[in-house]
Design goal:
Layout (H helix, E strand, L loop, with lengths): L4 H22 L3 E7 L2 E6 L10 H13 L5 E3 L3 E4 L7 H20 L2
Helix pairs in contact: 1-3, 2-3
Length: 111
C-alpha cells in the first residue's frame, strides 16, 4: 500500500477531481465536487444558489449508472461517493467518469 497505492491514489485522485470539475461546468445539477485522494464526493442540487439537495436526481443517477455497469453509492441526502480501488488506472477512471456523466445527462433530462 505505502509503496504503490498511496501514490497512485493521490495521482489518480487529483486527475479525477480535475475531470469532475470539468463535468461540473457542463452540468448545473452538480453543486460541489470535493475529496482527497480517491475518496471523492459529488453533491447534486436543484439549484446552485439555494443548494437544495436533489435527492431524486441523485437516486436516478445511481440507477442509470448501475444499468450501464457502474456501481455507485449515495451518501447523505444528495451526494454520490466515488471510492474506487487504490489500484485504479487513469484509463479505468476515464471509463467510469464517462458512464457517470452519461448517467447525469440522462437523469437531468428526466429519462
Amino acid at each position: 500500500i505505502e509503496k504503490e497505492y498511496m501514490a497512485n491514489a493521490a495521482e489518480v485522485g487529483a486527475y479525477a477531481l480535475d475531470a469532475l470539475e470539468e463535468i461540473k461546468a457542463r452540468h448545473p445539477s452538480i453543486g460541489d465536487v470535493r475529496g482527497k485522494g480517491l475518496m471523492i464526493g459529488v453533491e447534486f442540487v436543484t439549484d446552485r444558489e439555494s443548494r437544495e439537495p436533489a435527492k431524486e436526481l441523485t437516486d436516478r443517477i445511481v440507477d442509470f449508472g448501475f444499468e450501464r455497469g457502474l456501481l455507485m453509492l449515495s451518501c447523505g441526502k444528495s451526494v454520490i461517493r466515488i471510492a474506487p480501488p487504490l489500484s485504479i488506472s487513469k484509463s479505468e477512471m476515464d471509463e467510469g467518469l464517462k458512464i457517470f456523466e452519461e448517467a447525469i445527462g440522462l437523469a437531468e433530462k428526466g429519462k
